[in-house]
From TrEMBL:
The lineage of its organism: Bacteria, Bacillati, Actinomycetota, Actinomycetes, Kitasatosporales. Residues 1-43, 127-179 are annotated as: Disordered. The keyword RNA-binding applies. Residues 49-113 form the RNA-binding S4 domain. This is RNA-binding S4 domain-containing protein. Pfam families: S4. Residues 13-43 have a biased composition (Low complexity). Keywords: RNA-binding. It comes from Streptomyces hyderabadensis. The keyword RNA-binding applies. SMART domains: S4.
């Protein structure tokens, strides 16, 4: 029985495509249709796309409001400049996005407004990001023995230090005392 993810809908294994479409590197028909729909919904000539909307549409960030927050916090740069959420993007702009301890560097290939699937989103930019660190390089986040009880303040600070959240606990403590 073929699943909906099988290419071509047949029960056989997916084989490389033959013919001129495969030689040209053309996407499969479903992806091509999605690209056409995204371009139809995209900006017309002379119109622009907001940077917060674009980084959400190409799936660099989960929600548009998180994109706007990242822009306001200085985590998004376009061509080396910190930008506001409403900054207009153009094809060829370099967008740098810092999130979760990693920097994503992408060059805009296509402007879109609506969020699209991952195969279409990847074709809207060129990813020049450095590879993410291997999972083994990331320190484990304070694994406690089962039944060890509630962590002490010292244990909690040690876990925060391992996670890289050193300044967080002191900022919480100072939040109530500052004018």
């Amino acid at each position: 029985m073929a699943s909906e993810h099988d290419e071509g809908g047949s029960g056989r294994a997916a084989a490389p495509q033959d013919g001129p479409a495969a030689a040209a590197g053309a996407p499969d028909p479903k992806t091509a249709a999605a690209i056409a729909a995204a371009e139809a919904a995209g900006p017309k000539n002379g119109e622009s796309v907001r940077v917060d909307s674009w980084i959400w549409a190409v799936r660099l960030i989960k929600t548009r409001s998180l994109g706007a927050t990242a822009c306001r916090g200085g985590h998004v740069r376009v061509n080396g400049e910190r930008v506001k959420p409403a900054h207009s993007l153009r094809v060829g702009d370099e967008v740098r996005l810092r999130q979760e301890g990693r920097e994503r560097i992408v060059v805009v290939k296509r402007l879109i407004r609506k969020r699209v699937g991952a195969p279409v989103a990847v074709q809207c930019y060129v990813d020049n990001s450095p590879p993410p660190p291997p999972r083994e390089a990331v320190a484990p986040a304070g694994i406690r023995d089962r039944g060890a009880g509630r962590p002490t303040k010292r244990d909690r600070r040690e876990m925060d230090r391992l996670r890289g959240l050193q300044g967080l606990s002191s900022s919480r403590r100072d939040a109530g005392t500052r004018p």
